[in-house]
Amino acid sequence: MLAKLSQVNVLAPLSGTIVPIEEVPDPAFAQKMVGDGLSIDPLTDVVLAPIDGQVIDFQSSHHAIVIAGEAGVKIMVHVGLDTVLLEGKGFSALVSKGDMVRAGQPLLRFDRDYVARNAASVLTEIVVVNGEIVARIDKASGMAEAGRSVLLTLHLEVEASDGTPPEHDGEMLHSPVIELRNPAGLHARPAATLATEARKFSARVVLSCGELEADAKSAVEVMALATRLGDKVRLSGRGSDAAQALDRLAHLLRDGCGERIDDATRLAASRQAQDTCSAPVAQADTSNDRAFAGVAASPGLAVGHIVQWRDAELEFDETGSSFDEERARLHAALEIARNQIRSLAPHGAQGDAPEVQIMEAHLALLDDPLLVDPTEASLRTGVSAPGAWHAACQSVVRRLQQHASAQLRERATDVRDIGTRVLTLLTGGKRSTPVLGDRSIVLAHDLTPSDTVSLDRSKVVGICTVAGGPTSHVAILARSMGIPAICGMPAAALSLSDSTFAVLDGTAGVLQTDPDPTLLADVGRRQEAAAVQHRANQQAAHRIGSTRDGHRVEVVANVRDAAEAREAMASGGEGVGLLRSEFLFEDRTAPPDEDEQAAAYQAVAAELGTQRRLIVRTLDVGGDKPLRYLPLPKEDNPFLGLRGIRVSLAYPELFRSQLRAMLRAAPAGNLHIMFPMVSDLDEVLAAKCILREEQMKYPHPVKIGLMIEVPAAVAIVEALAQEVDFFSIGTNDLAQYTLAIDRGHAKLSSQVDTLHPAVLKMIDLTVKGAHANGKWVGVCGAMASDPVATAILVGLGIDELSVSVPAIPAIKAELSRLDFEACRTLAQRVLKLGSAAQVRAAIAG
Length: 845
Ligand code: PEP
Ligand code: MG
Known about the structure:
8-stranded antiparallel sheet; Histidine-containing Protein, Chain: A; 845 residues; EC 2.7.3.9; 27 helices; alpha/beta; binds phosphoenolpyruvate; 8-stranded mixed sheet; phosphotransferase system; binds magnesium ion
């Protein structure tokens, strides 16, 4: 029951011309859905409290505030129209929710010019949101003076109530969960529409979002939920017409409560796409709490909805068939796992070598009653072999993790490892992955290379990961797929709701959630400009790669399979400078056999023909590219451990079968073989010796090359040049090893800048050493795909640039603009500088 007050005066919160509420160009106000009152066309920019009372709602965007007076009167001041979309830009709060205020006290300040330019209107509404307690309203007209003019005189119902008491009887009914599609959540207008409709029913209806609840009949309470696009809400109701109320209100919520959802969605759709422009989004500042800054990993802009990529689990049915069948299934998988582990024994390793000890430990675990007994016990209760094995492993892992002994805690990793190995065998490696809608921005802690390449390019417009940096493999793959990406995101981004609307700027490394219309418009303009630039670049794409004064530099592609090779040739690629063969080995339970590999290499060769060069790199795993079936020892510094050529020499059977497959494919094209991560002449001699032995069976001549990725290789390049035909510089690794920064380091990887003079010096030394011995040098690291670096690489004498497929036209276009002598002068100048920033400044200047 309300206090017996007959009259309340509402002061003008702003000075300006009074406008009848019916004339406000927004139906929610004009039709008094939010409440009755007046509007002011403001001349001042500080909103004053219209009554004494408490701030009971203050939208996070600070464009609307509600004060509850002593008499129960609730007055809302709503600055401008559609100002919720400004998301707080141009507004500053002077009070907070919960504060007691006096009439005339400043509540908030706004930038009138900014609001006038960026919102639908500056007209400011002052309305009574609980009009049911008011019998009559006297309204002023003409001009209002802030804090002095009485704008509204409210004549209250004496002994008024909050309206017909809602019904509390009957069964509580619930609607399904509804995902909000309103771009700015349930702000004033949709909240008012919902409340107006809810009031047509006698049932009590509650709208809940997470832990919070609101009376659906109160627009203020609904607004106070502070919902956002993609939030999941539910209606609950009790009363004689609760079913009808829930049905109607659920429809209304799904349709956007009178908001033009489709228009908002269409606007976003028309602006989504990717570009290759190198300028960051002008408004993509990270000063608001909806922006997340990471490391620029793959250039371009994308507009879409977040899809959280939770760790993809192996998929299996919990219920099994008979005990005998499931037991046989389990033991067959355990036997295959044993054979796998034994067959991958490193060549020549002694019994006390760490990898041998790990293998033995894994073999012992496969027979451990701690795992096998509870698994079999579960099988007796009807659980499937994968279900029972998984549960047993999980339980042992948990127990080990809690153990006081550090040694036993470490064993949890081994149990997890063999657990996954056996589960992969039991399930055939089938994994459940998130459902992707159109225009998905995939957000993950990390993505494996195989997860990344399996992303549906027709649906995924952007990728963000918390782990990794610009030269981590997810970044390399995103670039090759032409998908804008950010790595090194703050972990807080993993809490963003699925469907959150966002702009991803892969060039600036910023994800802006709930973007405002200004940013969306800017993104649209940049995407159009990039498309124009791309079309212009494509005209140069099929010309031979050279500078404008005729210095020849081949522009070839980095690919992983035949389909990408075809795309590369269609985009103007002059050959393949790097076939990353490891993609054939990932996401499977056993390595591909020789026939499968030979067929895969032949297919790539067939795309290129016999003239264009195809450089196939031998297996490059380890570091951040583990293989499930290859039990590499756990290392404190995997990037400094068993990686690249070291793995091939440690597992010679694997290496030999790959070399045989390459030699079998060689007659189909102009095939070259390249060894990764070389740091010592002996490694090259050992690899060549194995190759020569295999060539006895398949005597096709092939050219041999080395990747220069380690400073040690640079230092001995002249000796290496005696043994091989060419070099290709892996600048991703060369930079991490030269600068001593892990390329996947979430915080530091942005500093792995290949334009650092130290890295340039390494390139310079390599080119000089190779050319002095008549060998040519390419670059196949990500640096080759960056037009900013092209002049310097050309100036340092690089003969071939092997780039991601989407970058081919841009690099060829950049080359055609350069003058070779000018490039040489620039290169010599930057070699004397002391930081990447100075080099970048020299390029720009
Ligand atoms: C490199 O290191 O630059 C390179 C091309 O190899 P990857 O990125 O595959 O390690
Ligand atoms: Mg490398």
